[in-house]
Amino acid sequence: MSYSCYTISPAKSDYVPIGTIEKFNDLDVYVSKPKGESKPFKKAILVCHDVFGCHPNTKQFCDLLAKAGYIVALPDYFRGKTAQVQSQGLQALVKFVLENFPAKLVMNDTLNVIKHLSSEYGAENFGFVGFCTGGVLGSKLCAIKDYDACVLIHYDPLQAENFEKSQCPVAFLPSREDQDPQPFIDVMKDKPFAEKNFQKRFSDMDHGFAASRGNWNDSLIFEKV
Fold first, then answer.
1. Is 135 helix (H, G, I), strand (E, B) or coil?
2. Which of 13, 52, 189, 216 is deepest in the core (most CB within 10 A)?
3. Which residue, among 140, 139, 115, has the nearest Cα to 126 in the 3D structure?
4. Cβ-count burial 143-153 (b if 16+ within 10 Å, e if not)
5. CATH of the domain at 92
């Protein structure tokens, strides 16, 4: 994990989300829909939060995507919990993630969200956006045929071999602290979608700027988002 993961607290936000909380089986999911449109919503994006869960910034990010014409689902993978960073340090943060973001459960939750969006909203095309720990999830989801694209933003440490199985293009948007994505792009160089893979480093931004740690009242940070 980056240094910011266990040293920077979540930003304060007075944003009022425009979406709603829905139950997908036993999972709370924040859903934001394009204004003035109705079912079917064929283009859907699933967003995975960072260690601070469904922070107002992350919901605002979802609302921005909805304004661009997508139905957006933000599952509460932590089921109401959130990390306590500065008071507990790196080891406690790792322990929290391992206990509250188990791979098998998270993957099952994600597949159920896809099914729900398909059956209830008529979604046919899926994209994924993952922040921090969500980037690790995205590195595994890109191997699932359901996804048309994955976007990984200031991601936690990734493994190149995960992208060898990718079935969709991936965009890597690291902050100044995060891994060089070139090795991940290199292992996808022979994929039919290789030219669609993308990387852009935000070298003036800290890890977490586009989600819970970003002060979106700062005009520069909001512009980058």
1. helix
2. 52
3. 115
4. ebebbbbbbbb
5. 3.40.50.1820
148-201 pLDDT, tens digit each: 999 999 999 999 999 999 999 999 999 999 999 999 999 999 999 999 999 999
CA 157 → CA 14, 58, 88, 120, 162, distances in Å?
A: 31, 20, 21, 34, 12
Number of domains in the chain: 1
Pair type for strands 198-199 and 170-173: parallel
CB 29 within 8 Å of CB 23: yes
Which amino acid belongs to residue 22? E
Measured between alpha carbons, how far is 217 from 12 in angstroms, rounded to an integer?
A: 10
Domain span at 12: 3-224
State the angle between helix axes of 103-121 and 133-141 in degrees (0 to 180), rounded to the nearest 10.
Answer: 70
Beta bridge mates, 29: 22, 75
